[in-house]
Backbone:
């Protein structure tokens, strides 16, 4: 609608659609990517630990298990979060056959393309 039509429409008493001035909601934060990064760091620390025993090692393995639980049991709320979950599946691929691995790789590519 041009300016002239807008003025004529307003003068005729026709109501115009309301324009929202409300602030857009903040982007939702999904913790899965951060959990995945921490999971990778704890996994690497477990693998690099010199003795594989002791309180420090136990703390690392306990946290790694907590992150396993968070990544697997917490529903992602964003595409990025879902992609992080699929990345975790790919890294933890002991259980996957070739079909599962291909599917997970394709899911990850799809999600990354949507992000």
Residues:
């Amino acid at each position: 609608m041009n300016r002239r039509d807008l003025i004529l429409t307003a003068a005729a008493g026709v109501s115009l659609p309301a324009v929202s001035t409300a602030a857009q909601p903040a982007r939702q934060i999904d913790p899965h990517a951060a959990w995945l990064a921490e999971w990778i760091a704890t996994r690497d620390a477990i693998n690099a630990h010199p003795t594989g025993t002791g309180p420090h090692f136990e703390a690392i393995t306990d946290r790694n298990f907590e992150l396993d639980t968070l990544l697997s049991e917490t529903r992602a709320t964003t595409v990025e979060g879902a992609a992080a979950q699929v990345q975790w599946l790919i890294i933890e691929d002991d259980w996957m056959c070739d079909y599962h691995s291909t599917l997970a790789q394709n899911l990850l590519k799809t999600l990354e393309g949507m992000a």
Summary: The helical segments are 3-11, 32-48, 55-73, 79-91, 98-114. The CA atoms of residues 76 and 88 lie 13 Å apart.
